Automatic annotation (TrEMBL):
Database matches in CDD domains: EGF_CA (cd00054)
Principal location listed in the UniProt entry: membrane
Designated name of the protein: Thrombomodulin
GN (gene name): Thbd
InterPro entries in the cross-refs: C-type_lectin-like, C-type_lectin-like/link_sf, C-type_lectin_domain, CTDL_fold, EGF, EGF-like_Ca-bd_dom, EGF-type_Asp/Asn_hydroxyl_site, EGF_Ca-bd_CS
Compartments where located: Membrane
Membrane topology qualifier: Single-pass type I membrane protein
GO molecular function, one term: carbohydrate binding
Subunit architecture: Interacts with ITGAL, ITGAM and ITGB2. Interacts with thrombin/F2; this interaction switches the specificity of thrombin from a procoagulant to an anticoagulant and antifibrinolytic protease. Interacts with ANGP1 and ANGP2; these interactions significantly inhibit the generation of activated PC and TAFIa/CPB2 by the thrombin/thrombomodulin complex. Interacts with PF4; this interaction enhances generation of activated protein C. Interacts with HMGB1; this interaction inhibits HMGB1 inflammatory activity.
Pfam families linked: EGF_CA (PF07645), EGF_Tme5 (PF09064), Lectin_C (PF00059), THBD (PF25444)
Native species: Drymodes brunneopygia
Length: 542
């Protein structure tokens, strides 16, 4: 019945022998945040890595000369090769001798280093490769599955406890969480234990509450003051023959009888806590006052004070206030000042400030639009002006001009089209109608005869009275009703009109024949029309 169990027992025994036994480090060195340990146990790279991880660390990374000096202290000139935390990157099948780490990377997954110490190499090597170090501190490549004489481990911590200051002749030994033991440690990582048999004490390095690790024990109160000051955060003294800790003025003794805490620790003050006479008082930030419960803070309405803190408008905010200005004012260096006339005006081009306001002005080549004083339109005060063309080649001319050629605007003579009833004068981009003496201009175009007997103060010529509505007198009365002097005037006027038409025809013929460059300008260049110019109504245009 026992025979079937023999193969199983043999298999379990073989598996137990194959598992690497936990070994204690032969030596260790600890700094403030790191400990290094050496293990003399023949294992392949994977087994060495598992041994370090079992103690909460990893195979050692040697990124600086400080780590290399720690290796020298740990080896103590002993022969043998030890695994470091360097292995060939999984993405590479062969080493890269030209690179600083030769294609290897640390077990932490990175390649950063300030130090290397490679032994001379015979060239590129392929396969699974790892790195060992010896007492000469030289780094050598090695097949990962081959066992080395030992390995080096590294443990990192957030802080450490200092070596305990003990009286002469009192022995203190330490045990670290990764298995190292000894009496020569200068710093101990958290969870280390200190043994002081002469005083019957066993202390632990405990993580402090924000103040870093410190030595402590389960029993509250101070231990003998000659050993590290009794563990007191303040001062250690004796009271009735027993050690006792005391704290500085304003601080209270902690629950463990060794630490010191502020009276404000655990206070529920919303803003600030101030220590006073061994107790605490809650205080509030500027703009708040302490609520009746003594711990909360409530906002003060600064705008309700008299006089108010602002020149014009005050808006209360949590813990403060904001000063604002009425419409037509703006804030300048904490004061409300009237807005300048041109502040946020709707002028299309430019704004000019006047003594009691502003006016809109235009860039050269433009004039203020008579129908909208804030807008500008193209303007030319000569018979010819360059056209305004965009990138696509489309050109635009001012009103009253036509495009002649590709980029020249030529004045259009509206008088040729009979816009006026009697006399007409062409102007750049527009025209003006006139009436002879004895006639009144109506609607800027028509001429109404002034009736006899209207008396002194009757209007004539180009003037158009506001309230007077004359009786139309076109066509003129029959000749038998006219005075002989009037007939002579009419005949002279007809003759002058005929001469004017002949001269206009000659002028237009010359304008069509001559080149663009030889045409006469009515002025020397573009001129801006100001807002005060008398506009010509659109009714005069064709």
């Amino acid at each position: 019945a026992m025979r079937p169990l023999l193969p199983l027992l043999l298999l379990l025994g073989t598996a137990a022998l194959a598992q690497p036994r936990d070994v204690s480090p032969a030596g260790a060195q600890c700094l403030e945040h790191e400990c290094f340990a050496v293990f003399w146990a023949s294992r392949p790279f994977s087994g060495a890595s598992e041994g370090c991880e079992r103690g909460g660390g990893h195979l050692m990374t040697v990124r600086s000369t400080v780590a290399e000096e720690a290796i020298a202290l740990l080896l103590q000139n002993r022969e043998g090769r030890l695994w470091l935390g360097l292995s060939l990157s999984p993405s590479l099948s062969c080493t890269e001798p030209s690179q600083r780490l030769r294609g290897f990377r640390w077990v932490t997954g990175d390649r950063s280093t300030d130090h290397t110490n490679w032994a001379p190499s015979s060239g590129q090597r392929c396969g699974e490769r790892c790195v060992t170090v010896s007492r000469e501190l030289r780094w050598e490549e090695r097949r990962c599955e081959e066992p080395a004489d030992g390995f080096l481990c590294q443990y990192s911590y957030g802080g450490s406890c200092p070596r305990l200051a003990a009286p002469h002749g009192v022995l203190v030994t330490y045990a670290t969480p990764f298995g190292a033991r000894g009496a020569e440690f200068l710093a101990l990582p958290p969870r280390s234990v200190a043994f002081i048999p002469d005083l019957g004490l066993e202390l632990r390095c405990e993580d402090g509450d924000g103040a870093g690790p410190r030595w402590g024990r389960d029993t509250p109160g101070a231990w003998p003051c000659e050993l590290a000051g009794g563990g007191c955060a303040g001062t250690c003294g004796e009271e009735s023959g027993r050690p006792r800790c005391s704290c500085p003025e304003g601080a209270l003794l902690g629950a463990d009888g060794r630490g010191c805490r502020s009276p404000c620790e655990g206070a529920q003050c919303q803003h600030h806590c101030v220590v006073a006479d061994g107790s605490f008082v809650c205080m509030c930030a500027i703009g708040y006052r302490l609520a009746p419960d003594g711990v909360s803070c409530e906002d003060i309405d600064d705008c309700a004070s008299e006089p108010g803190p602002c020149e014009q408008k005050c808006v209360n905010t949590q813990g403060g206030f904001e000063c604002r200005c009425h419409g037509g004012y703006r804030m300048v260096d904490g004061h409300c000042e009237p807005l300048p006339p041109c502040w946020e005006v709707p002028c299309q081009h430019r704004c000019e400030e006047l003594a009691h306001g502003y006016r809109c002005a235009c860039h050269p080549g433009y004039a203020v639009d008579p129908l909208d004083a804030t807008r500008c339109r193209l303007h030319c005060n000569a018979t010819e002006c360059p056209a305004l063309c965009d990138a696509s080649g489309a050109c635009e001319c001012p009103e009253g001009f036509v495009l002649d050629g590709e980029d020249l605007c030529v004045d259009m003579d509206e008088c040729d089209s009979g816009h006026c009833e009697l006399n007409c004068t062409n102007t750049p981009g527009s025209f003006q109608c006139h009436c002879p003496p004895g006639y009144l201009l109506r609607d800027f175009i028509y001429c109404d005869r002034i009736l006899d007997g209207e008396g002194e103060g009757a209007f004539s010529g180009d003037t158009e009275p506001g309230p007077h509505t004359p009786v139309p007198s076109w066509p003129p009365p029959s000749p038998e009703r006219l005075h002989p002097g009037v007939l002579v005037g009419i005949a002279a006027g007809a003759l002058l009109s005929l001469l004017a038409l002949l001269a206009l025809g000659l002028h237009l013929a010359r304008k069509r024949c001559r080149s663009h460059g030889s045409m006469d300008y009515k002025y020397s260049g573009p001129q801006e029309k100001e807002l005060g110019l008398q506009p010509v109504p659109s009714a005069q245009k064709p």
